[in-house]
Amino acid sequence: MAEKQHQREILLRSASAFPPPPGVKLSYGTAGFRAEGSILASTVFRTGVLAALRSLKMGGATVGLMITASHNPVRDNGVKVADPSGGMMTQRWEPFADAIANVPTAQDLVQLVFDFVKEEEIPFGGVCSAEVLLGRDTRPSGESLLEAAKQGIAAVVGAVAIDMGVLTTPQLHWMVRCRNKRRKASESDYYTQLSSSFKQLMDLIPKETAISLFDTTVLVDGANGVGGEKLIELKKMLPGLEIHVRNTGKDGEGILNEGVGADFVQKEKITPHSFDLDDAGRRCASLDGDADRLVYFCISSACGRKIDLIDGDKILSLFALFIKEQLTILKKEESKGMTDKLPSRLGIVQTAYANGASTDYLRQLGLEVVFTPTGVKYLHEKASEYDIGIYFEANGHGTILFSEQFIWGLESLNIQLASNSPGSDYQKAALRLLSASQLINQAVGDALSGLLLVEAILRHIGWSIEDWSKLYQDLPSRQLKVKVVDRSVVVTSNAETQVVRPPGLQEVIDAETAKHSHGRCFVRPSGTEDVVRVYAEASTQEAADALAQSVAREVDRFLGFGSLH
Ligand code: 16G
Ligand code: MG
Hints:
It is a single chain. By secondary structure, the chain is of the alpha/beta class. It has 4 domains: 2-166, Alpha-D-Glucose-1,6-Bisphosphate, Chain A, domain 3 (3-Layer(aba) Sandwich), CATH 3.40.120; 195-312, Alpha-D-Glucose-1,6-Bisphosphate, subunit A, domain 3 (Alpha-D-Glucose-1,6-Bisphosphate, Chain A, domain 3), CATH 3.40.120.10; 314-469, Alpha-D-Glucose-1,6-Bisphosphate, Chain A, domain 3 (3-Layer(aba) Sandwich), CATH 3.40.120; 477-564, Alpha-D-phosphohexomutase, C-terminal domain (TATA-Binding Protein), CATH 3.30.310. The chain contains 19 helices and 19 strands. The protein has helices at residues 2-16, 41-57, 94-102, 106-119, 142-154, 169-180, 187-203, 207-210, 226-235, 262-268, 312-330, 356-364, 376-383, 404-420, 425-439, 447-461, 465-469, 505-513, 541-559, and strands at residues 33-36, 62-67, 76-82, 130-136, 159-166, 217-221, 242-246, 284-287, 294-299, 307-310, 346-350, 368-371, 388-392, 398-402, 477-483, 491-493, 498-501, 520-525, 531-537. The strands form 5 sheets. The protein has a 5-stranded mixed β-sheet, sandwiched between helices. It has a 5-stranded mixed β-sheet with strand order 7-6-8-9-10, with helices on both faces. The longest helix is centred in the middle third of the chain and has 19 residues, at 312-330. The mean pLDDT is 94. The structure holds 2-acetamido-2-deoxy-6-O-phosphono-alpha-D-glucopyranose and magnesium ion. Magnesium ion (MG) binds next to loops.
């Protein structure tokens, strides 16, 4: 009883120092809270309390708290929580996240927390310990917000905050996962794991392609954010691969996410700052502000700033091709008996934004492709249902998940092969899959580990960026957004491909879509902005533009301000 009282007093006192800004309502959304950095102290403090409670609920397992606003402008910031698995915080706790962020007074906050703790049966009041790892990106507001998070964690008795400093979002998720698995989890362990698995993959490159005239240089746009800085560290450990990082944001050069970064490149389809025609034909890549998104691009000499975009769908296709090749080698007739017990169900997860040409390509490869709503948490969850689940959003968020059973099976197979047929194609295929599972981040999509896997696979196949770009031809597409009075009025189903409400809107979309050859169109409420997004695809750019515009007008007519008329 005395412990509870003590806890109540501490929470009340600390919360009183972080009053919420009046008139601001925040929602945890698809990727945590985001707003202007200057108004976020209260939200971050409260998210600190939440993260500590989450750790308590999970028996003291380590939880992560990341301060970042990803690809948003530099004045913004944000905060999100990583669960002990290293994945996103469970969706079950999102209503509590919304409630704790928006509750008006310190007294209300204490009441809310005590009610929640009771309902969730959380050991509260100092009976158990909790641990939260903290990370932040390079935003100027990050340092003071990190202090607010520390105070939120300290307001929960028994909770300890460990400040990991400036990190990419995927580094923090990786650390949380490793720590809970009792593995080495420091930043230097991260670099060691990535560089050594990359080297293993390079050592396994078939002789035929190893001698080809491969361009060993990749030019990387670091979005003037944390990713570039970290890549400069990592590249020191990668002999044989020349990484030239531009837009590092160092020494006050360039502004975070301004005219640079994966989001800019993917949306605008033009060169980011610091890239020009001199780079035509080179292999270029772009990270977003917290380095959990990756896209590649190539500048074609005739087209000014226009680029050939190699988006998340094409990264996914490259990964799928490679994984499938290794599985096919393992499943060859001769190795039956050894490999047929290996559980190896391969699944591809996309969203409605995936270019239709990519889905066709993947299905032609004979792969199972499924769809989820937009947002990493949905794709990740679905991919984890497979022995190997590959997921990507077109915008460059994605990774490959390997199930524990698959990895165990592969490890024991590798031991068998090492004595039965050492150095065989089978053993090499098994080792490639094991190395890929070490290289690619198992907690969350990670631009740095994704970049290294792309580089290793291109080298493995002996492909130039042009070869990769030609894997299939994207269907022309157009994205538009419509400002609406209340975006929650739009309800969708079937992984956001169908509108259920308002009634009648889907019929209108169907009628517009039917006017265009290879037409495909959907609308969905944004999870991050007060808009409804429209996506259209068709066989020509003009048709895709026309379809998107006509549907945008209809959305505006149904629920907008009528400004598009
Ligand atoms: C967030 C999501 C991203 C999604 C985007 C959609 C995470 C880590 N990030 O940035 O996956 O593509 O939102 O934004 O889940 P929208 O709902 O505004 O279109
Ligand atoms: Mg990001």
